Every structure is written in structure tokens, then in C-alpha cells.
Amino acid sequence: MSASFDTLVRVRYAETDKMGVVYYANYYIYFEIGRVEYMRNLGIDYKRMEIEDDSFIVVGESKCRYRRPARYDDLLRILTRVLSVKRRTIHFGYEIVRDETGELLAAGETIHVVCGTNGKPKALPEKYRSILANRVA
User: Fold this and answer.
1) Contact, 37 vs 5, CB < 8 A?
2) From CA 60, how far away is CA 51, in angstroms rounded?
3) Which end of the chain is more exposed for a tag (fewer CB within 10 A), N or C?
4) What is the distance between the alpha carbons of residues 60 and 32, in angstroms, rounded to a whole number?
């Protein structure tokens, strides 16, 4: 995965099932962690984006392909990248790898629609679009 941003997270016991394997829905939480940290690293703060620009990025589509299980106490590397930026949407890609071995555990994507507090789609403010467009892989 080129032009990606790395975030590390350790699997907590609460994120696993009885067999010590990460519950499938938690990968979407890992995607969110990677996305938020990536945007923060670019100087984009979700909270300020919502308050100052009335711009919320709502998940419109998501998918994840699970390849190998992550387990309790694994250190995971979340690789996040911007796949595309359009007038009203941002498309992110993710890979989750076991940090110790580099083994790919899951890969996924999310497409976000920019909305105002009224819930209606709106244009992504140019100040964010220009930053994200420069990072498209």
C-alpha cells in the first residue's frame, strides 16, 4: 500500500471473543482509528471540522476482507491511505497487519459522504479537499 500513514494499536482483551480472536466488527474501529490519526497528522481535526465548518464525514459504504485472525495483545499496524477525493465524498483504504511479522490480517475501504448538521450532503470545504487530494495514492 503506497502513500499510506501508519498507526499502531494493541488488541485489548475486550475486543476479542471467547477464543481470543478479534471480533470482526472491531476492524471498523481500527479503520476509524487509522483514519482519524491520519487526518490529524495532516492537520485536519474532526472536531474542528464539525464545529467550525459544519462538515461531518458520514460512512456511506464500507467493506472489509478478513485474511487472518488478530488475537489478544497483538500489536497491529493500521495502514491508511486516501484513494479518492471528490466534491462530496472521500474514499479511504486500509490494511491491518501484525506489526511483528508484517502479515496482512485484513484489508478494507470506507467511502464517506460530507454532510451538514441537517444531514444533507454538501461540498467538502476546499481547505480540506486540497490537503486530502494531495495525498491520493
Assistant:
1) yes
2) 21
3) C
4) 14
| CA angle in degrees (0–180, nearest 5) for 39-44-50 | 110
Task: Specify whether the CB–CB gap between 61 and 107 falls below 8 A.
Answer: no
**Predicted confidence band at 1 (pLDDT cuts at 50, 70, 90)?**
very low
Mean pLDDT of the region 97-125:
97
- Which burial class, exposed, middle or buried, applies to 12 when counting CB atoms under 10 A from its CB (0-12, 13-18, 19+)? exposed
Residue 43: all three cell numbers together:
492537520
Q: How far, in whole angstroms, is CA 114 from its chain's centroid? A: 15
Strand ranges, E, within the chain? 5-10, 56-66, 75-85, 89-98, 104-115
Q: Kindly report the CA angle at 77 between 115 and 59, in degrees rounded to 5?
A: 15
- The separation between the first and the last C-alpha atoms of the chain, rounded to the nearest angstrom, is 8
CA–CA gap between residue 55 and residue 50 (Å, rounded): 5
Q: Does residue 87 come out as left (phi exceeding 0), alpha (psi in the -120 to 50 range) or beta?
A: alpha
- Amino acid identity, position 81: R
